[in-house]
Amino acid sequence: MNKDPNHLRRIFVITAVLSVAADLLYWFLAGPHIPPGRMTSTASSNQWDFNILMVIALPVLIGVWVFLGYTIANWSSKRASAPEPKGGAAARSNMKAQTLWIVITSVVVLFLAGFGTFELIIGDGSGGGEGPNPVWEPAGAAQAETAALTSSASWAPGKVLVVQVIAQQWKFTYRYPQFGGFESAQLILPNDTTVAFNVTSLDVIHSFWAYQLEVKADANPQENNVAFTTTKQLGQFTVRCSELCGLWHGAMYDFGKVETRSNFTNWATTTESANSANTADLPAFAWTYVPDANGAAGGYYPDGTVTPYSTVETYGAKQAAS
Amino acid sequence: MTISAERPTKSVATSASPPTSRGVSWTQRPGWMSQHLGTAIVVAVLGYTFGHWLGNYITSGYPYIANSGQNAAANALALTFGVAGWLLGIGALNYPLAKLVGKEPEKDTPVDGWSKYFRYTLDHKVVGLQYVVGVLLFLFTGGLLAMAIRTELLSPTTHVFGPGTYIEIVSEHGTIMMMMATSIIVGPLGNYLIPLMIGSRRMAFPRIEAFSFWIFIAGYGVIFSALPYGGFPTGWTGYAPLQTQAGPGMISYLLGFAVIGLGMMAAGFNIAATIINCRAPGMTWSRVPIFVWSILATAALLTLATPTLFAAGLFGVLDKTVQTAFYVTEHGGSSYLWENLFWFFGHPEVYIMALPGFGIVAEILPVFTRKPLFAYKVAAAGMIGVALLSFFVWQHHLFQSGINPDMRPLFMLTTELISIPTGFIFLVGMGTLYRAKIRFEVPMLFAMAVFFNFLIGGVTGVFLSDVPVNVTVHGGFFVLSHFHYTIMGGLLFAFMAGLYYWLPKMTGRMMNKKLGQWHFWTMFVFFNLTFFPMFIIGLLGQPRRVFTYARNLTFLNDFSSISAFLLGFSFLIFFANLMWSMYIKPVKAPANPWDSLGLEWQTANPIPLYNFERIPVIMTDPYHYSEVDAPALADLGLSGPGAKASSSSGKSDKK
Questions:
Q1: What would you measure as the largest C-alpha separation in chain B, in angstroms?
Q2: Which terminus of chain A is more exposed, N or C, with fewer CB under 10 A?
Q3: Considering the domain boundaries, does residue B485 fall inside one?
């Protein structure tokens, strides 16, 4: 060993070459196929987000692995040519290296936080549950949500569709307030439409995960958890519960469909009239439902309104749902 | 155990109690007529029976749990009195009770011989070894449950277990492993090594230390009592209202965490007090070994975060027994309350399970690279930074829960910020490896694997912290894989590194190298083959804790399951190695087998009861490897072989 080669430069060059190759391969080969696909606006924007993170992560992974590999290959004590290590102050710290490390990691982290926040805001919550008072809403959602509670609520193509997801042990059902508040066991959505999912639970915490739609919102008892997305493609999608909810959690799934707008309207109006007798027996549409005053009877009344059981008489007026 | 045969039995033990005491304590008397594991079991059973009777007596006709024929109050009191009986039986309460009634406590003259490992013992080295056995008990039980989970997941449609049994298994696995992981390094290695590393003769509060171990074992009993009660269906996170709705096994979960929590708090503040107060002269903060820094940061988290868990668990017990409504929405409680309390503890908790691993890796890297630890101060600052920041990130577990949407950018920021101090461990590791001369002994292999595994765990953590990506990965197998990469890939590999490294000191016997290498390679390869596919399984849409999944995920699940069985087999190799090297064919360990400069290796072998004949005076930090004219680490105040050991400098590079 006459002259020690510049190890850091070698490691850097190997890392850079491999990183560029890996990033390109990832971006063009894997990226477009990363779940959950592009069935909705949130699916494609979160896929883009995932891919950006991956393009940043790959060089980090490769950098550390190359370093470890280089170390193992060159500085094993079994190699006769390995140089004797040197202790002392120089080996104990290196201001330049330490500062550079801290600056680089900080810049990456701050960029990621900024990027994530930006994506979250322009994605109207990115398909995640935003609670009863969403801070990031698509245009028209607030009006549609407010109108949904009135009897005059209606939907026309181009408007925001309000859907209520009711979770209970161990199934999901869906109510359509803009179609008389009928309840369906299957989730059917119109294409090219912004949907406001209002997720609630009748018992324990569940989580509504419409996988291909890229919507995930916990279903909490007596809470309304709102999430938004805009459908972009026709097709079937899977709904699974993604929060442990007891015995049959593993079997709590169903399949929904995104249909054309006209098919959807046909289906919704047909179901509305076919179900009208059942709908009349349901509690009036509300964001959340509370077990009824008789407890064990298993009925539910809408939170904050007068009910057939006259809980107001029994318990005094409830506070309005937040 | 022969290792203790040469230890002095008459020593400065009297400093623990005044000379006027009434005789030898029951915990230290020889023979059957004394307090030991056997009496603890007997009194625990008596306590359990009494508590059960009492509960049924005072609340007869009250809160029976639906479909179980069980009375919640009876269950809770049975377990509480059972734990109290256990502590009474082992002798953990002798001293405080004597003080309480104004009597002088009896003398704690240490007993010798193997029976001390089954007693309430004040020697931190005995407690450390007791903890080794204790955490391995947790680890192997939890591991067997993991095998059961992977067996069920071999097929999406054919089921080995019913859904109820499966959820029980999943919940027990998660809870036991989490309980184990909080103590796996702090308990065995922390208690054993801290006094040796800082030049102290004992822990600050030896009685609290012994208490923390025995209540840890009581926690094992309590969490296992869930099984005969029909288990609990909530997973280790115990979310309410599922918790409120659950059967009697839930009480074992809630009390189990409260009991383990008591042990964690006790261990935490004992260790913190020891590190702060019992350092030898000259052991300044810039000279304490980096492992001690990591344990100090961990102890702070144990002390500050665990009370939240303790209180949350008790609230849950009250909800189930005396009909309070902390978590019952219909009566003014909130399911979010449990989520917040649980994760307010739970997120610092995951750093309780990461920091000691960093400490071990950073501690043994210099020994096997023959280089000083790179950026020591950055490493220490990083650990403290992680500990502090860990209190400000808990709501990233609740990104989809519906609370505080406007706080999500903040929690995304804090979560991503924590990767800066976490990343320091890589800076430190890479700086130490640079131009080193690496000896790939078994502990070093495990330490290198920590860098490989934890990198994957850490980077995927950044994906999870990104709110938009979190929508895809929250609650699925991606998360599951992420935290197995950090806890198992990081902490457990570091624990193994620590065991292979320090067991020669702790037991005087070397672990077999060949078997150790087999253990390492099987564990490393099959760990990655088990958990890496789970990232893909998660991205493809499989939620956690399910017993059915989409048919197209069968291959990946089977691949993961078969790897998991082989991973389980690697632990059998470890167990075989442990038995072989400790009992079947023990090989006497040299005084300093790895040529370490650490103070713990400078003590006599076997370590005398009070560790140091004289309190050492520390001259410098223990990382002067490969340094010409390196200063001696410490003045041990000895003449003879000990003095020689203390002056050996980093130049020594003999293999």
A1: 79
A2: N
A3: no
Of B412, B439, B546, the CB nearest to A250: B546
A77 DSSP 8-state letter: T
Q: What is the C-alpha to C-alpha distance for residues B375 and B388, in angstroms, rounded to an integer?
A: 20
Computed over every residue of chain B, the mean pLDDT equals 89
Residue B533: both structure tokens together = 């596919």
- Is the domain of B185 the same as that of B254? yes
CATH number of the domain bearing residue B264: 1.20.210.10
Query: Shortest CA distance to A290 belongs to which of A258, A263, A315?
Result: A315
- If asked whether residues B179 and B241 sit together in one domain, one would say yes
**Are B437 and A68 a contacting pair at CB < 8 A?**
no
B403 CA: distance to closest CA in chain A (Å): 6
CA gap B285, B279 in Å, rounded: 9
Q: Is there a domain that residue B564 lies in?
A: no
Look at residue B107 in the predicted model and tell me its pLDDT: 75
What gap in Å lies between CA B444 and CA B366, rounded to an integer? 10
Positive/negative CA dihedral, B4, B605, B598, B133: negative
Average pLDDT value for residue range A157-171: 94
Tell me the count of A-B CB pairs closer than 8 A: 284
Alpha helices in A127-186 (DSSP H): 141-148
Rg (CA), chain B: 25
Range of the domain at B614: 591-655
Same domain, yes or no, for B145 and B71?
no
Residue A315, pLDDT > 70, answer no
Mean pLDDT across A230-248? 95
| Residue B194 CB-half CA count within 13 A | 36
Quick one: closest CA in B to A212, which residue?
B541
Indicate if B83 and B138 belong to the same structural domain: no
Helix axes A95-122, B408-417, angle to 10 degrees: 160
Q: Are residues B153 and B295 in the same domain?
A: yes
Of B330, B371, B440, the CB nearest to A91: B371
Pair (B160, B234) in one structural domain = yes
**DSSP code for B589:** P
Q: State both tokens at B568.
A: 């389980």
Q: Do A77 and B655 touch (CB under 8 A)?
A: yes
Q: What share of chain B is helix, strand, coil (3-state, %, to 5)?
A: 65, 5, 30
Q: Does A31 touch chain B (CB under 8 A)?
A: no
B65 within some domain: yes
Mean pLDDT of B430-439: 93
Judge whether residue A232 has pLDDT over 90.
yes
Does B441 fall in a domain?
A: no
Q: Are B433 and A88 inside 8 Å of each other by CB?
A: no
pLDDT tens sequence across B546-561: 999 999 999 999 999 9
Helix or strand holding residue A183 (H, E): strand A182-184
Q: How confident is the model at residue A311 (pLDDT cuts 50, 70, 90)?
A: very low
| B203 and B301 fall within a common domain | yes
The enclosing H or E element of A259 equals strand A253-259
Angle at A22 between CA A17 and CA A24, to 5 degrees: 100
Q: How many domains does chain B have?
A: 3
Q: Is A49's pLDDT higher than 50?
A: yes
Per-residue pLDDT band at B14 (split at 50, 70, 90): very low
Q: Inter-chain contact B329–A97, Cβ cutoff 8 Å?
A: no
Q: How many CB atoms lie within 10 A of CB B233?
A: 28
| A298 has a pLDDT exceeding 50 | no
What digits encode the pLDDT tens for the residues B189-216?
999 999 999 999 999 999 999 999 999 9
H-type alpha helices, A168-246: none
User: Tell me, which fold does domain A141-287 have in CATH?
Assistant: Immunoglobulin-like (2.60.40)
Same domain, B151 and B202: yes
B160 touches chain A (CB under 8 A): no
Query: Looking at residue A292, what is its pLDDT?
Result: 56
